[in-house]
Structures are given as C-alpha cells and as structure tokens.
C-alpha cells in the first residue's frame, strides 16, 4: 500500500525540528512526502520545505511565525522543549506548555476537520490526573499573557518547571482535546520514557543517571528519537481518526509494569 499513513502533499508543522525527537519526526515526514514547515530556536539540518526561527518563550515571536504560515495546515507536531534546571522555571513552562499551546491555538483556525495535533509530554508528568484541581486554573487560562502572568503570580505551582509543564500538557490535551474533537480536529500527546537525545545530559545532571534509569521499564533500555517520532507520526495520520484527547505512553512498558506492581525500581541509594 503506497502512502499508507496519508502524508503525501500534506502541510505539516514541526516544532523542535533542530534536534532529537523533533528532528526525527521532521525527517520521517519529509521522507513520507509531506510539505514540512520546521520551527526551532536553533537552525536545523533536516531538509524541511520552510524553516522559521521561533522562540516559544516569546508571544511576539510565535505570532510573527504563525502569521507567516499559510493554511491549510494538516498536522502540527509540538515537540520543542526545555529540560528544567538550569533553565528558569518560567522559561521551561513557557516553552513546554504556554508557548506551545499559544502556537497551536493560533494555528487551529488554519486547520480543517480531519486535522491533527500531537504534543510531547513525558513520564515526568505521570500522576497529572490526581493534580487536576491545581492544574486546571492554568490549563484554562485564556491566552499567552494571562498564562504567563498566572505563572509569575504562582511560582510554587511551577517549581522546578519540567514536571509541572508536562502535567499541564497532559491535562490540557485531555481538556482541550474534547472541544477540538467536536470541530473534527484531533489533539493527542505522547508520554515518552527516557530517550537518548541532546536533552538527556541535562536530566542526568539534575537527577543522576540512576534515577533516570529507574524510569526504564521492561524494555531494559532507553528509547531512540525515532522510536518516539513514529508514534507521533501515527497519531497525526488520518489513519488514527478515532484517537482524540489521548495520552499514549511510549515507554517500553514502564507504566504497565508500574501499575501492576511488576517493576523493579532501582532507585539510587
Ligand atoms: N529526552 C528524553 O528523555 C525525553 C523524555 C520525555 C519527554 N521529552 C520531551 O521530548 C521533547 C523533545 O525533546 P528531545 O529529547 O528531542 O530534546 P532536544 O534537546 O534534542 O530537542 C529539543 C528542541 O527544542 C528546541 N527548543 C528549546 N527551546 C526552544 C524555544 N525557546 N523555542 C523553540 N524551540 C526551542 C531546541 O532547540 C531543540 O531543538 C521535549 O518536549 C522533551 O521535554 C524528552
């Protein structure tokens, strides 16, 4: 079957296309014949059709880039991210949630029914369902500036940046994915386990290698960027037309093992 995932000629946008999972997704989409618009704060080596420099911490930068993108946009891959410390908490939450959400919301009017968006959260955001009460005030803020002001007024709610940002992505996808599906636009997220990318040294410096590896499940290894990119490509394909407001755990079986008590967690001494 040719063009099995139906990306040929489709206009797709990938943030974080300079590195890691975003670069892997952008390359796969180029190979599948899509018209790839790449966004990142750094230049990319992936042969995308158009590249736009964007800083997801900055509303004006996002608005300028989004305004330069013609519709129809068929799919958005929201992959760019920061790992938390040493980056300030506010920067991590702006890039991983507030700016990503603003870009997606600005593009939604350029998407037709059948369009799809995939985000990248993390296993670091596990447990978000238990935190909904504290997450929803920020999840439901209207727009970039209001969300940024909320973060600045509530620094304890975004302490350390990374885990809160990934819980926010999961909660927003479940919440906003509902209203978008009523418009025929699907919004989903993946929750990757530890993945060998340029971000990994920052995680190891923050938490230590042993703690990162405690999140390795029955696969016994970290994933590659491609192993995260393909599930994103699958989720945004029209072939996944009944998957919406969903969080797909791409973690080599970690969550299943954890919830059934089969995980041997080797936490550092
Ligand atoms: N690597 C892991 O173990 C892991 C695990 C779970 C989730 N994630 C998430 O996966 C996503 C991709 O990360 P990765 O592992 O490929 O890391 P990476 O560092 O290789 O890629 C992240 C990309 O985001 C871009 N970026 C950073 N700040 C930006 C900004 N202000 N504006 C625009 N772009 C910006 C970077 O330039 C980079 O190209 C991130 O959202 C990350 O949080 C990573």
Describe the structure.
The chain has 269 residues and is an alpha/beta fold. 41% of the residues lie in helices and 13% in strands. It has ten helices and seven strands. It has helices at 20-31, 59-67, 89-107, 132-139, 144-153, 162-182, 200-207, 209-213, 225-236, 254-259; strands spanning 11-15, 35-40, 50-53, 75-78, 116-120, 186-192, 247-250. α2 runs parallel beside α3, α3 (89-107) runs parallel beside α6 (162-182) and α4 packs across α6. The structure holds nicotinamide-adenine-dinucleotide (NAD). Nicotinamide-adenine-dinucleotide binds at residues 16, 18-22, 40-42, 54-57, 79-82, 95-96, 120, 122, 192, 194-195, 197-200, 225.
